Amino acid sequence: MRAVYQLLAVAAPAAALTITDLCTTSYAQSALPAPGFYNGITIDASSVVTTLGTNYSISGNDFFPDAVINYCNVSFAYTHDGRDDTVNVAYWVPDPSKFSNRFLSTGGFGLAINSGASTVSGGVSLGAVSGLTDGGFGGFSAQDDTTFLLANGTVNWENAYMFGYQGIHEMTVLGKEFTKNLFGINNGTKLYSYYHSCSEGGREGWSQLQRFNEFDGASVGAPAFRYAFQQIQHLYSNVVEQTLNYYPPPCELEAILNATITACDPLDGLTDGVVSRTDLCKLQFDIESVLGTPYYCAASSGGGGFPGKAKRQMGAGATPVQNGTVSAKAIEVAKTILDGLHDTQGRRVYFSYQPTATWSDAATQYNSATGEWELSISGLGAEFVTRYLDLQNVSTLSTLDGVTYDTMKGWIYGLWQQYEDSLQTTWPDLTHLQESGAKVIHMHGESDFSIPTASSVRYWESVRQIMFPGLSYNESSAQLQDFYRLYLVPGGSHCSPNANEANGGWPQTSVNQLIDWVENGIAPDTLNSTIFYGPNTGDSKPICLWPLRPLWTGNGTTMECVYDQASIDTWHYDINAFKMPVY
Ligand SMILES: *[C@@H]1O[C@H](CO)[C@@H](O)[C@H](O)[C@H]1NC(C)=O
Ligand SMILES: *[C@@H]1O[C@H](CO)[C@@H](O)[C@H](O)[C@H]1NC(C)=O
Ligand SMILES: *[C@@H]1O[C@H](CO)[C@@H](O)[C@H](O)[C@H]1NC(C)=O
Ligand SMILES: *[C@@H]1O[C@H](CO)[C@@H](O)[C@H](O)[C@H]1NC(C)=O
Ligand SMILES: *[C@@H]1O[C@H](CO)[C@@H](O)[C@H](O)[C@H]1NC(C)=O
Ligand SMILES: *[C@@H]1O[C@H](CO)[C@@H](O)[C@H](O)[C@H]1NC(C)=O
Ligand SMILES: *[C@@H]1O[C@H](CO)[C@@H](O)[C@H](O)[C@H]1NC(C)=O
Ligand SMILES: *[C@@H]1O[C@H](CO)[C@@H](O)[C@H](O)[C@H]1NC(C)=O
Ligand SMILES: *[C@@H]1O[C@H](CO)[C@@H](O)[C@H](O)[C@H]1NC(C)=O
Ligand SMILES: *[C@@H]1O[C@H](CO)[C@@H](O)[C@H](O)[C@H]1NC(C)=O
Ligand SMILES: [Ca+2]
Fold first, then answer.
1. Residue 24's closest CA among 71, 72, 62?
2. What pTM was computed for the model?
3. Helix crossing, 473-481 with 453-467: angle to 10°?
4. Among 39, 388, 535, 580, which one has the highest count of C-beta atoms within 10 angstroms of its own C-beta?
C-alpha cells in the first residue's frame, strides 16, 4: 500500500495529468491493488498492458447516447492462489479531466461474461473507470461454454462459480481499488460504484446485487435469471411444434405478429404502432381472429439477421415464396406457445413471452429437398441440455425425438438443483441492499422475444412478498421502490429498441438516471426513453414505473401511468408444477 501512495504522492500534484501520462505500463503498475488487498488473489504486475484509444466513437448504442471519447485500456491478469489459473481483467480509464469519481462494472450476454467495448465505452463517456473480465475462460472473447466441462461428465466448478457470480465480483473489487489508486482518491472522496448490463449481463448484475454490497447503483436489463427455467424455455416453442406436428412457415407467424400489433396498438389509447399494453392485448385480443388472414413473403436468398431488430421473423438460409392464409394449426401453435409450458397434468411449469414478441424460438427451417418447413432446434436452449445438464461436450441437440412437456419439466428441475447456488440467481431477500442505500433500475422490453417480460415482474414480486410480508400491496410496493424500481418498456425488444414498433422508445439514458438517483437523490418516477426508429427518431418518451401502466387519454394527447388491477394480474402466474417456491 505505502509504495503505491508514495508514487501517487509524486504524481498527484501534477494536477493536469493527461491520459497520455496515465496510459503507461509503469503508471498503471503503480496503481495496482497492493499484494494481499484481495485475499487469495495474486496479480501479475508484469502482465499489465496499456492501450491508448483516442476519438473512439459511441454511436447508435442502445444504452448510451452518442459520444466521442478518449480512454486508456489497462488490462492485467491474476491468479487464484493454489489454483494455477489465469483471469484477465481490463479497465477502460477516462481522460483524467473527464473522470467523475465513478467506477462502472459490466457484464456480458448469451454465454459471454463481457460485452467487449460496447459497455465500457459508455461508462467512460460518463466519467467512469469501466471494467470487464474474461472470467478465467481463456481470453476476453472466450465464452463460458468452451471451458464449462473439464471432460465429459465433469463440471468445471471453478468456471460455474466464476460465471455464476465470482468473476464479476473480483473484477469489481479490484477495479474500485485500482481506480482509487490511479486517481489518488483517498478516504475523503467518495468513489461512486455502478453496474450496467442486459440479458446474461442482467443476470450477472443480479448475481452481484443478491450477494454483495459493492454498488451504489445498478442498471440491469432483461436479466437471464431463474436460469434453469429461462434456458429450457427456449426449447418450448420447438416442443410445441413437434407435439402439435405443425411447423409454421415463418411468414405465417409474421402475419400473426402483424395482426397482433395492429389489433392491440389502440388498446393503450393511442394508435401509434406501439403496443404499450401487452397486458390489455392478452385480455382483449384472441389470435383466433387471425384465422384465414392472407400472408405473402417474397423468396429470399437468406441471411436472416438478428430477430426483432431488423427482420420480423428470423429466416436463415434461402427461403421460397411463402403465400397462403393463416391456418388453424398455426393459431394452435401460437396460442400454445403464449400459454406457456404446462406438464401433462395441466400444471404450470413456466410462462412465455408477451404477445407482440417475434416468434424467434419458433423459427422453422426450409428443407429444399422435401419442400417442407421443419423443426429448427433453438441452439440457446439445447446446449443447456447437452452440456449443462447431461455434461457432454456437445453444443446442441440433434433431435427432440421423444421429448415431451414433462421431459422439459424434468430438465428444468435438474438444472435448477444443479445450479441453484451458482446460476439460478433469484435470491429474493435484498435487505442488505435496502440497508446499504443502493439503488436499482431494472428494465425489460414488453416485446422481448428471448426472455419473457413476466420473468422480471415475477422477481420484483418475489422480492416484494419476501421482504414486506406484513404490508399491503401499495405500501410494500412503495417501500420496494425506495431502492428497487422496475420499468416495462412499451414496444421494447430484447435489450434493444424494436423496429417492429418504431415509435416505442428505449431507455438509452438509464445509467444517467441511475447516477442522478444515487448522486443527486433524484429518483426516476418515470424512466426516459429515446425513439430509435421511424419519423420520430430522437424524440423522448417517459416509461411508467411498475406496477403502474401507461394509458393515453384525451384522444391520445396525454399519457398517464395508471393502476389497473386486472392488467397487473395478467403478469402473475401460479407455477404449481413444483412444490418448491419459484422466485
Ligand atoms: C481527435 O479529434 C479531434 C477533434 O476532431 C482532433 O483535433 C484530433 O486530431 C483527433 N485525434 C486523433 C488522434 O485523431
Ligand atoms: C483491452 O486490452 C487488452 C490487452 O491488449 C485486450 O486484450 C482487450 O481486448 C482490450 N479490451 C477492450 C474492450 O478494448
Ligand atoms: C470439446 O470439444 C471441442 C471441439 O471438439 C474440443 O476442442 C475440446 O477440447 C473438447 N473439450 C473437452 C473438455 O473435452
Ligand atoms: C484512511 O485514513 C485513515 C486515517 O488517516 C488511515 O489510517 C487509513 O489507512 C486510510 N485508509 C485508506 C484506505 O487510505
Ligand atoms: C408485417 O409487417 C411488416 C411491416 O409493415 C411488413 O414489412 C411485412 O411484410 C408484414 N409481413 C406480413 C407477413 O404481412
Ligand atoms: C398468392 O396465391 C394466391 C392463390 O394462389 C394468388 O391468387 C396470389 O396472386 C398469390 N399472391 C402473390 C403475391 O403471389
Ligand atoms: C463426449 O461425449 C460426446 C457425446 O456423447 C461424444 O460425442 C464425444 O466423443 C465425447 N468425448 C470424449 C472425449 O469422450
Ligand atoms: C393502490 O394505489 C393505487 C395508485 O397507485 C390506487 O389507485 C389504488 O386504489 C391503491 N389500492 C389500494 C388498495 O389502496
Ligand atoms: C429525462 O427527461 C426529462 C424530461 O424530458 C429531462 O428533464 C431529464 O433531463 C432527462 N434525464 C436524463 C438523464 O436524460
Ligand atoms: C382524435 O385524433 C384523431 C387523430 O389526431 C383525429 O382525427 C380525431 O378527429 C380526434 N377525435 C376527437 C374526438 O378529437
Ligand atoms: Ca399504441
1. 72
2. 0.94
3. 100
4. 388
